[in-house]
């Protein structure tokens, strides 16, 4: 018996630097058991045609955004790591501008490092540094803890591991992307990069590649081919380009407001965890200050992307007040444990109101700051300046989210 199955595979092309969005794919099931031979014809429609799934109405509580950042930490990549550290909060702000059906996305980020000889050779010189998490302080902590050491960079293997290990969301309207950056040929290692990239796109995950070096060298090394296989974007950067942070008259006010914002956090859980959350928030403020990015971090903290549900009483109460009401007394901050349940709720609601006021002020001052930066950049335009990790990432995210149905605020 011979049957012919005709299916149409619809897809959406996405333009972004190290990450991209994949719409639904019409995957066909296995042939019937009684068939001797099945011929399958796939008609691929033009990538310019919009996939109907892109425009499906969003029905979730918040649109889901999952991003895995895969960084080469071999000897020559110190500049790349420095760029990622100093530009993290600029990148977060790009996500904060995105909305679907009026809702800011729930952003989760994972970090992998690869190509470092301090990592086990039996594991392909790969390490999952951070699982997908909405704890952006944890992501910042992980980036600042990275160090480099020479090694073999296995792009196919680290992409494959990221696809398999991470708990990627199943929201049909989600944006899922891998951003991989490095400088050696994409073809190294025992895992075929073509297989890994196809594996990613089969799971609705776009792969965007950032080659650290010459554009044509990256093409020759198959970085562009890898991106195209997974409907992502190929980019190249100069990993040794110095990141320029423009000092603004608004910085002083933003830093003061950031200090006030920190006072509104009511960390909860076991005592050790409470102290750890508070200490890490302060540590990442310090890290951002040292790399010239504290104003950007403070601005990101004023958005709903910086959330600490499950760690902070205010954020948790706003999402699930019953969970807070049922919390054991010893899990509350020490200063709240002696209060009555009613007094605890009054304290949380008071802090929620205070936080909202500070965030509104921060957002307003940051708009002035961004306008100042734009004007200064226009005056000092340097055509010789090369793209950095943050430049490529931000542009890709902005374009990709827009293509995938998000509205982007200016």
Automatic annotation (TrEMBL):
InterPro entries associated with the record: VWF_A (IPR002035), vWFA_dom_sf (IPR036465)
Domain VWFA as annotated: residue spans: 64-247
Signal peptide residues on this chain, from the entry's feature table: 1-22
CDD domains: vWFA (cd00198)
Keyword annotations from UniProtKB, A to Z: Signal
Pfam families reported in the protein's UniProt record: VWA (PF00092)
Gene3D superfamilies: von Willebrand factor, type A domain (3.40.50.410)
Name of this protein: VWFA domain-containing protein
């Amino acid at each position: 018996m011979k049957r012919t199955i005709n299916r149409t595979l619809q897809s959406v092309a996405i333009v972004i630097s190290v990450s991209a969005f994949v719409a639904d794919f019409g995957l066909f099931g296995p042939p019937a058991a009684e068939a001797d031979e099945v011929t399958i014809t796939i008609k691929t429609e033009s990538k310019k045609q919009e996939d109907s799934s892109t425009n499906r109405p969003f029905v979730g509580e918040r649109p889901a955004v999952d991003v895995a950042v895969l960084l080469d930490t071999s000897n020559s990549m110190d500049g790349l790591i420095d760029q990622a550290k100093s530009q993290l909060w600029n990148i977060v702000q790009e996500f904060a501008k995105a909305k679907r059906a009026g809702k800011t996305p729930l952003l989760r980020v994972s970090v992998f490092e690869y190509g470092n000889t301090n990592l086990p050779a039996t594991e392909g010189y790969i390490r999952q540094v951070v699982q997908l998490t909405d704890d952006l302080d944890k992501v910042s902590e992980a980036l600042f803890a990275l160090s480099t050491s020479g090694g073999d960079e296995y792009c196919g293997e680290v992409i494959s591991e990221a696809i398999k290990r991470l708990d990627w969301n199943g929201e049909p309207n989600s944006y899922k992307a891998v951003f991989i950056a490095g400088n050696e040929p994409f073809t190294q290692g025992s895992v075929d990069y073509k297989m890994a990239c196809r594996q990613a796109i089969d799971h609705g995950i776009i792969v965007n590649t950032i080659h650290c070096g010459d554009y044509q060298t990256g093409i020759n090394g198959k970085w562009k081919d890898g991106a195209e296989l997974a409907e992502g974007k190929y980019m190249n950067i100069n990993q040794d380009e110095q990141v320029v942070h423009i000092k603004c008259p608004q910085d002083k006010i933003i830093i003061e407001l950031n200090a006030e914002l920190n006072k509104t956090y009511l960390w909860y859980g076991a005592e050790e965890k409470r102290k750890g959350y508070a200490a890490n928030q302060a540590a990442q403020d310090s890290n951002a200050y040292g790399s010239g990015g504290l104003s950007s971090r403070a601005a990101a903290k004023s958005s709903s992307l910086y959330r600490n549900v499950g760690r902070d009483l205010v954020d948790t109460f706003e999402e699930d007040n019953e969970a807070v009401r049922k919390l054991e007394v010893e899990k509350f901050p020490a200063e709240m444990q002696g209060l009555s349940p009613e007094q605890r709720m009054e304290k949380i609601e008071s802090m929620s109101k205070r936080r909202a006021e500070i965030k509104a002020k921060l957002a307003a001052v940051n708009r002035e700051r961004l306008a100042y930066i734009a004007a200064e950049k226009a005056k000092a335009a340097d055509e010789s300046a090369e793209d950095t990790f943050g430049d490529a990432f931000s542009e890709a995210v902005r374009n990709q989210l827009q293509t995938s149905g998000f509205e982007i605020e200016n």
